[in-house]
Design a protein that fits this description.
Number of domains: 1
CATH superfamily: Nucleoside diphosphate kinase-like domain
Bound molecules: adenosine-3',5'-cyclic-monophosphate
CATH class: Alpha Beta
Shape: globular
Number of helices: 7
Strand order of the largest sheet: 2-3-1-4
CATH topology: Alpha-Beta Plaits
Low-confidence stretches: none
Helix content: 40-55%
Structural class: alpha+beta
Distance between the termini: 14 Å
Radius of gyration: 14 Å
Largest sheet: 4 strands, antiparallel
Length: 137
C-alpha cells in the first residue's frame, strides 16, 4: 500500500472539475483517506513548490497556485503514485495521452488541473505539508 498527494488546482476548481476528478479516482479503485479545500498564501505555495524555486516558471506557478482554492487529497492504494500519474497524464497537456485528466481538461502547461506526487519521498513531504497523521483515515 502506498499513499500520494493529489491537488485539484485553482483552474480545476474554477472549471467545476472536483467531481470529475474524484469520479476517476473512485472508478480506478483509489481510496481517498484525507481531503480538504485550501487557499494557499503565496508563501505557502512557494514552500510547497520549493524544489522548483530556481525554475523560470516559479513566480508564475506560485501566483497561480495561491490565486484560488485547491482541493488537496491523500490517495491510498497499490502503486497509487504511478496510478495517479497515469490518470493525470503528462505535465504538458499537449503531450498527455488521450483520456487522461490533463488531455481532457488542461489548457496550459501551468494551468494543468491536477498535481500528483512523483515519488515516495516527495509524497511523504507533500502529504506532511497539508495533513497531520491524525487527519488521515
Ligand atoms: P505540477 O505537476 O504541479 O509540477 C510543477 C508545476 O509547474 C507543473 O505541474 C505545472 O503546473 C508548472 N509548470 C509551468 N511551466 C512548466 C514547465 N515549463 N515545465 C514543467 N512544469 C511547469
Amino acid at each position: 500500500m502506498e499513499r500520494t498527494l493529489s491537488i485539484i488546482k485553482p483552474d480545476g476548481v474554477k472549471k467545476g472539475l472536483i467531481g470529475e476528478v474524484i469520479k476517476r479516482f473512485e472508478a480506478n479503485n483509489i481510496k481517498i483517506v484525507g481531503m480538504k479545500l485550501v487557499k494557499m498564501t503565496k508563501k505557502e505555495a512557494k514552500g510547497f513548490y520549493s524544489v522548483h524555486s530556481k525554475r523560470p516558471f516559479f513566480e508564475s506557478l506560485t501566483d497561480f497556485m495561491s490565486s484560488g482554492p485547491c482541493v488537496v487529497m491523500v490517495l491510498e492504494g497499490e502503486k497509487v503514485i504511478e496510478k495517479n500519474r497515469k490518470l493525470m497524464g503528462a505535465t504538458n497537456y499537449k503531450e498527455a495521452k488521450e483520456g487522461t485528466i490533463r488531455a481532457d481538461f488542461a489548457t496550459d502547461i501551468e494551468k494543468n488541473v491536477v498535481h500528483g506526487s512523483d515519488a515516495p519521498h516527495t509524497a511523504a513531504f507533500e502529504i506532511g505539508y497539508f495533513f497531520q497523521g491524525i487527519d488521515l483515515l
